[in-house]
Amino acid sequence: MSSPILKLVAQRVALGILLLVAVSVLIFAGTQVLPGDVAQSILGQAATPESLANLRAELGLNDPAYIRYFRWLGGVLTGDLGTALSSGQDIATSIGGRLWNTLFLAFCAALISVPLAIVLGLLAVRYRDGWVDKLISGLALASTSFPEFFIGYLLVYFFAVQWQIFPGISTVYDGMPFLERMQAIALPAAALTLVVLAQMMRMTRAAILNVMQSAYVETAELKGLSAFSIIRKHALPNAVAPIINVVMLNLAYLIVGVVVVEVIFVYPGMGQYLVDHVTKRDVPVVQAVGLIFAAVYITLNIVADIASIVANPRLRHPK
Amino acid sequence: MLDIKRIPIPALIGIVLTALFVIAAVFAPWIAPHGNAQIVGDVWQPMSSQFWLGTDNLGRDLLSRMIYGARTTIFIAVLATALSFTLGSTLGFCAAVLGGWFDTLMSRFVDLLMAIPTLIFALVVLSVLPSTLVTLILVMGILDSTRVYRLSRAIAVDIEVMDYVEAAKLRGEGMRWIIFREILPNALSPLISELGLRFIYAILFLSALSFLGLGVQPPDADWGGMVKENKDGIVFGIGAALIPAAAIAALAISVNLVADWVLNRTTSLKGGRG
Fold it and tell me: Cβ B204–A147 below 8 Å, yes or no?
């Protein structure tokens, strides 16, 4: 590999790590400095001042904020996410299986939506301004306007209740046979796919159209190449970098969509875990899960950056 | 001038639907056949001539709750959008005009806020804040103002180098004049088309929060909260939860259609004048 790419990649990674540290400060600050009181929210409004003071001392809330931050960060770096206030369980152990469940669900959704979006985007360019294109932009409008739960519950209503093809509640457990697991996550994966598909499709279309307007594509047209071979040989290779970017951005969006979708299908993942503990005002869990979500989001964005650097031929073949 | 016959049909549909929702929201107490929290029948009754949309999980009239829900949903979304626009555009314009450390500091802070998915950060913050309407509007408005900040800063940076702004500076006008009399009027049309998109986003965001049980608290309910209330009926084949969800989608689509039309109109005007 040549050095300019390595240098750029190293820069992006360093920037990402810096960003992640800053984000951890922000998440910590968001839960500590704001005028909510953890001790008060655990004990409720009727707590006596003495019991509040005791609990504060027990949780180390009397230390200055920056000391608590470094204690927390030190724990996170060594894999100790603390214990949940509401249940007293170790957070890292509770998260383990759930993180895997969430990633599996998001991975399945990505596996369906990415190729589908690219193929449909290509079709939209091929039949530009025709009915396929119009249908696709109509779908894109609908899907950016539909809340996730509308799509989710429509799927449940028809596929789980009316036609009874798939279960409406996605129970998964350790050691579940693969096929059963796939059947359980069919509906949430479909919902997630529909949430990101249209946006991804529209952006792919825009990326390819952008390339289609360049001079070499016109030359290819004048040479008499067919529309599909122009797209395949000239447009697509040059559109790879923007498409990768589109895909990664939408995968990052999956991370957000997954929270709502998990709640709809009662799927035992990170999103469900986060929402439950926000309701219980269990700050250590919220911090830990929030940080993990942010980390995945930032990582995907960096991967998108790096992928588009690597896909750029001008950087790949330096003079 | 604006001629009704020249408005394209999709935009017309959008305007009519949006107007209907707004009318329902404003005149809710006069339109709704029953009270918001009034229990009028059995749980989850089907649609009938007495209860047009049936009843909800506690036997309240769904149509009445939808109308009151329109009020809550639109009210909060409007306030949050107003906050995000005021905050975002003021800071964005200031950053563009002042430049220097203020610009760097604000822009880096906004980058940082946008590095965390909005919903996730909202959940983190809502875990310690009291669940009141004011908190909800503040959290939604402030988090969304990052996007308005970026847009308005980018627009203002372009306008700021124009000759007329330079002339105003040489005249010795203060920052307030530059922002409100020079930049704002010229930045208005791109900002207005963004307004529609931010409003839709506010509605979807509010609905998601309420659906997760962290937005509007019972007995009041916005549409997202109503989906949450009625979602257990779905597995028994009762579609009550789908109605508020569809309403959110319909409102978002109609505002989208209007925003699209406004966007096309303003850009074509610009093209026409060269």
Answer: yes
Tens-digit pLDDT profile for residues A62-73: 777 788 888 888
Query: Tens digits of per-residue pLDDT, A78-104?
Result: 877 777 777 778 888 888 888 888 888
Question: Model's pTM, two decimal places?
Answer: 0.87
Average pLDDT, chain B: 85
Q: How far apart are CA B145 and CA B135, in angstroms?
A: 15
Chain A, chain B: beta-carbon pairs less than 8 Å apart: 153
Strand partners, B60: B39
Residues of B in contact with A297 (CB under 8 A): 115-117, 120
The answer to whether the Cβ–Cβ distance between A274 and B130 falls below 8 Å is: no
Q: Does the CB of A16 have a partner CB in chain B at under 8 Å?
A: no
What is the phi/psi pair of residue A93, to 5°? -65, -40
Measured between CA atoms, how close is A110 to chain B, in angstroms?
A: 18
Rounded mean pLDDT, A282-292: 88
| Residue-level pLDDT at A38 | 65
Burial class (CB in 10 A: 0-12, 13-18, 19+), B272: exposed
Q: Which residues of B touch A86 (CB under 8 A)?
A: none
Closest approach of A37 to chain B, Cα-based (Å): 7
Radius of gyration of chain A (CA): 24
Residue B221 parent element (H or E): none
Look at residue B39 and tell me whether its pLDDT is greater than 80.
no
Compute the average pLDDT of residues B103-118.
88
The Cα–Cα gap between A283 and A288 comes to 9
Can you give the pLDDT at residue B91? 92
Q: Look at A275 and B212 and tell me if their CB atoms are within 8 Å.
A: yes
- Bin A187: left if φ > 0, else alpha if -120 < ψ < 50, else beta: alpha
Q: How confident is the model at residue B139 (pLDDT cuts 50, 70, 90)?
A: very high
A86 close to B (CB below 8 A): no
Contact (CB<8Å) A290/B120: yes
Looking at chain A, how many residues does it have? 319
B interface with A, Cβ–Cβ < 8 A, is 112-113, 115-121, 123-130, 200, 204, 207-208, 211-214, 224, 227, 231, 234-237, 239, 241-242, 245-246, 248-249, 252-253, 256-257
* In chain A, % of residues over pLDDT 70: 92
| Half-sphere exposure of residue B190: CA atoms within 13 angstroms, side-chain side | 16
CATH number for the domain running over A101-281: 1.10.3720.10
Distances (CA, A) of B247 to A87, B127, B252, B254: 38, 28, 8, 10
**Inter-chain touch B120–A23, beta carbons under 8 Å:** no
Q: What is the ipTM of this complex?
A: 0.83
Residue B98 to chain A, least CA–CA distance (Å): 25
Determine contact: A202 vs chain B, CB below 8 A: no
